[in-house]
Write a structure and sequence with these properties.
The chain is mainly beta. The chain is 6% helix and 48% strand. It is built from two helices and 26 strands. Strands 1-22-19-24-17-14-13 form a seven-stranded antiparallel β-sheet, with no helix packed on it. A seven-stranded antiparallel β-sheet has the order 2-3-4-11-6-9-12, with no helix packed on it. Strand 25 and strand 26 form a beta hairpin. The longest helix is centred in the last third of the chain and has 13 residues. The chain is globular and about 55 Å long.
Length: 300
Amino acid sequence: MNSRTEFVNPRKVNKVVLAREQYEGDGAIVRRSIGSSELKFLDPFLFLDEFSVSAPGGFPDHPHRGFETVTYMLEGAMTHEDFVGHKGTIKAGDLQWMTAGRGIVHSEMPAGAGLQHGLQLWVNLAAKDKMIEPKYQEIQGKDIPKVEKDGVKVTVIAGEALGIKSAVYTRTPTMYLDFRLEAESVLHQAIPETWNAFVYVLEGEASFGAPNSPVVSAHHTLLLSNGDGLSVWNNSLNSKPCRFLLIGGQPLNEPVVQHGPFVMNSRDQIIQAFQDYELGRNGFERAPAWHSHMVEDGQI
């Protein structure tokens, strides 16, 4: 096993936060890491939720403005529907990168029976982009680049790893990598030095930043120091792989004012967002008359 660190300024772990279970939406259980009381915000990231939900629960009709939501399914499937007529289902391994921009009202509900399990990341938008038109990027799992080498497998959702690049466009420059590190394997992954970055462990355990650092297990978020890359060692005695997300982004360095589903740069803009939503204007013209099919059919 190669234990050599590949970076001039390797990143270390500054803080470890356990994502504890809480209820969200209609009967959904989420483990919130970023956006929790212990890690309120990591510019440009607003939230990371690992969600588990079964019908009839879910995330019924709700609005957004001023940021992007990134939904990545791990198990099951979720159906998305919005007030401009877009509707689709993302299944295990699929990705939806939604730019809410000036306004979206949508629902996200289980597509079938059983447990639906996934991740949703909120990425802030720069002030100049907050009122752009909504946009979607939806990619099936088979079309997301994957590569495996020397006991390391990565799904490249955004950014680049092991020489493979994602085609996803990130308006706020972002990397989103899903790694699986086999026992006795090591990873050296470059990260732009000026970006903020964190790790979220999904399964197993590993040492991050140094080969002799304490192992970190599932549902923990690791806030990383500055540096040009991260090294990870799977020295686990149980010989099991470790699956984790490595997410990084270029800080916006702008004021953040958030109230519920709206994220803007000032309190006045938040008040304006609520007024626009309630009065059906400035991007929310369709909001007053729209309900998802599940609401109209009386299913929720």
